[in-house]
Amino acid sequence: MRSPPPPASQSVGGSGFGTPYGGQGNQATGGGQFAPTFGGFMNDQTAQMGFQLGKSAVTAGQDYMEQNLNRYVSISALKHYFNVTTSYVLRKLVLVLFPWRHKPWSRQQRPSTTGSQDQSSYSYYFLPPREDLNSPDMYIPVMAFVTYVLLSALLAGLRGSFHPEVMGTTFTYALFVVISEILILKLGTYLLAITNESQLLDLIAYSGYKFVGVIVTLVVSEIVNLGQGTGGWASWTVFMYTFLANAFFLLRSLKYVLLPDSSAPAGSGMAHTVARSQRNRRTQFLFLYAYFVQFLFMWVLSKQDSATGRAGKVKGVL
After folding, report:
1. Can you tell me the mean pLDDT for 169-177?
2. What pLDDT shows up at residue 15?
3. 255: Cα separation from own chain's centroid
């Protein structure tokens, strides 16, 4: 024997708790009256006013950020250094690691006409990195910096010395090196009377290419030494090669920044006259920076072992 089904139609109609999409019951009728009232309250004019207020707030925030950032660095100038392509990145990495036979090293310029047709003057500007292989960029230095931090954490994990502080301490350590180098460059530009903002940004961009050589040194040393860190003749051989390649790359590339060509066309970025004494001091600074400063920082960044890891070294240094 089966019991009869419950009276579903009476319970639904009496309680009034049917689906909100139904057209039966008092609650459904009330819901149908509530929706148009709510929609009428949020009319098109009110929505447009809200959108305009939101857009104005976002625009004001962007303007505020740009004004504060422009006090220290030009946003439009930074965009120039990130204007790269995949082809440029690959060819630039090859140039940084194998710069020996590359020619020419001078940057390409393009004239731009200002003024009317009758009285027009020509000014030159450097081509962006995607159009000139010799142009410095900040995409590769930034990506190499991040890759260095991640690679150090990965190597620490392979050696069995990974802990949550490795990435943070490695990032702090590398950032400390970068800031120290920027301060050295800032002091050098002040002593050498280099006041052009673009030249300072070029120096900062060039300072980040050493991370490429450091990454190659860490990877090759890890493979050759079977997880024992950097050490031994093989690691030193790789390190010396990447160091000399980076130094040669900097000597050739920074020549137009510190030793501008007086025979360059008027209005170009390299048409500056430098006194002989000032030129000698800039040559000495270029030599010291490319060899001694880069050797110190590259050696510090690439020195790792299997016992302590990068985090332990940072705690000992700081």
Report:
1. 91
2. 44
3. 24
